[in-house]
């Protein structure tokens, strides 16, 4: 039974990641046209990538949106997690569902809905509109991560701190925050990665300033080139590293 499960898992992961591995290999092909077998190897397409002003500009836009969106997620997601965990108020169940709704809905629906609202409001589509779109689902990401950690947090430690004379503010900064910091860091890295890779919402909310995924999508209309393979490889490596860090932080804290 375990052998069958292992083989099934290997086949599933191969189906998911083998195409990406092919892209990585082709990013080191010296030829401008993808062909098999690869006749010669080169890193020149990474040099071409670094000289592509449109890609560099879109990458900077993605970094700005991802960083600002992550900040929005933290500023609103952390209080939302505490509100759901610590307080009982009318409409609490509805509040939880409304916050999680952008994460549950397909990105294309969120993008079309927000684009319609911005157009009706007379707001020009720009990096601000993309940022607002990303912020809506990043709040849910942060809230779920922090809320899960708060559910495992032993509040007796907080009560002991306040019994010993510490104020609620001191208790938060010296007791609560250190115990949930890995969840916050993990949520930040996960939010940044998801925002950097987001295309569905960005596609409908983008204006003249393109983000990196939208720029790559526009380039793919002319066909797959080694330059696209190179940037895809870098994004893939970055995403894998961020996910590994998030998983390690969450696992270490759970084991502790």
Automatic annotation (TrEMBL):
Pfam families: BPD_transp_1 (PF00528). It is found in: Cell membrane. PROSITE patterns: ABC_TM1. The chain crosses the membrane at residues 7-28, 63-87, 99-121, 127-150, 171-194, 230-250. Coiled coil: none annotated. Residues 59-246 form the ABC transmembrane type-1 domain. It is a multi-pass membrane protein. The keyword Oxidoreductase does not apply. The keyword Transport applies. InterPro entries: Bact_Polyamine_Transport (IPR051789), MetI-like (IPR000515), MetI-like_sf (IPR035906). Keywords: Cell membrane, Membrane, Transmembrane, Transmembrane helix, Transport. PANTHER family: PUTRESCINE TRANSPORT SYSTEM PERMEASE PROTEIN POTI. Belongs to the binding-protein-dependent transport system permease family. CysTW subfamily. This is ABC transporter permease. It comes from Cohnella kolymensis. The lineage of its organism: Bacteria, Bacillati, Bacillota, Bacilli, Bacillales.
